[in-house]
Structure prediction request, 413 residues.
Amino acid sequence: MENLIIFLVYFIIVLSYLYLLWIGLLNYSYRNKPIPEEVSDIYDKEEYEKWQSYTMENFKFGFITRTISTLMMICLLLFGVFPFFDDIASDLVNNHIQLTTVFFLGLYWVVTFIVDLYPEYYQTFVIEEKYGFNKKTIKTFIMDKIKGILLTIIFGGGLIYLIASIYKNAGNMFFIYTWISLVIIFLLINILYVPLIVPIFNKLTLLEEGTLKEKINAFAKSVGYEVSKISVINASKRSTKINAYFSGFGKFKNIVLYDTLIEKLSEEEVVSVLAHEIGHNKHKHVIFNLVQTTIMLSVYVGMLLLVLSNDVFSTAFGFDSTNLGFAIILFLTITQPISVLLNIPMAMFSRKHEFQADKYAATKYKKEAMISSFKKLARENYANLTPHPLYVKMNASHPPIVERIRAVNSIRK
Prediction:
């Protein structure tokens, strides 16, 4: 039985790697396809050649980093590093199960942090810098890492300690208590992300008085949407790319606009982007996503319980009995194929929601502003104008830009 488990784990690791390589190659192979007429004016010839070069470098670099992370996991399993980590963690805290689990996973996190550090530096200061996207300084990069480490220790360590405590004390109620805890934490993150987490890394300011705010308020009033607060984030501190997002729900909803978005789009285009975000709210997509996430958590907690309920998942890799920390790592590894399958309907619903929000914005505001904002967003973020159809179905949370433009053009007010 142990040999079968070992084979299955290695098989899943390699299969997941090959899938990501295949789907990436599939999408990459479409980079030279003819550009649809509706989006032919997004890039000029020089910009399009630059986009192709950017795409090529990212694909190759992504392949290298995935290969390294895959080989690292195989080596950690093959050479019995995880039982070694457990011995160190147990000695440090005198076999205290909660702290042992926290330190065990902490040791694994330190290894992955070190392995990922240079690739992230290279991605930021070589590739993104080369194509004019990066605005980070070395100081900002280092400070982000320090802040990330502290947040991981506080929140990541706290979460693992909580799960370990439930595992130690809840018995047969482990699934219920863990699921409830994770759902509550997810809801709190949705509520607190913008007011609590974002300011740690970026400066948030209220949208200043002026014609843009007047236009936003006028539109919001026309559709019966209460705009209590619109924040502007200094995204230009890190990148030239543009975006906007909606966070929270009910009285805790937040709309955040990148300062780069306000800088590079006209006021009408910014309002159209905001109208799209309001469209998500009007269609209750946030609530849908919350329900979807609770269902996903049920599947994942069930898979974790399966790994914890069978000693063989741990003993096959050198442990004397079930090890909670290793079970969490193994669970994250073997659920990758399940995540791929679950991502297909999730991505489908997400694309459907984008179309719905687009339609809302186009009918309630201005189609022309929507279309021009699409094109600017695509150009400034170096969007792929010719993604492979299968890649879109399997992986894309947003429809291709040409499909969004065609959908908006087909709307009759």
